[in-house]
Amino acid sequence: MAAKENVTMEFRPMRRVRQQLTNEACEEMLRNATSGTLAVLGDGDYPYAVPLSFVYADGIIYFHSAKSGHKIDAIRHHDKASFCVIVKDEIHGEQYTTYFSSVIAFGRITIVTSADEKLEGAKLLGRKYNPGDEAGLIRELEKGLAHMELLRLDIEHLTGKQAIELL
User: Fold this and answer.
1) Residue 56 located in a structural domain
2) pTM of the model
3) Residue 26 CA: distances (Å) to CA of 23, 48, 76
């Protein structure tokens, strides 16, 4: 993994401030959405964006992953990432626009090495996508936890935007 830089990043302000969502609204969207797109710096320094399931908890986004592949290699090479969730995307053809709501999280992504955090993050994911089946979740984790990675995105900057028509 690339060493973390000791430089404070100044994120750009949103150009269309009237459309900017509050942090609370962004967090609510992250709690309720079921998928998004993770973007990392991939092979040859090309952006690599991959759709993923996720869970949001207390300023952290967790993802599960295979132990090897393009995404894992990219994360080991460079720890900066962004994650985008589109919650609403209604086409209004007669107006030549869409009514949308979206969130982008920027932060540092790591492969979780703590066995306790890996188990807890995997439980959060399982409970989100199959609530109410704790016994089944435990069986699945006993079978598969050793064969997966858990990724952790620590959010440094969160921004959300919605169509002006939704204000």
Assistant:
1) yes
2) 0.89
3) 5, 24, 28
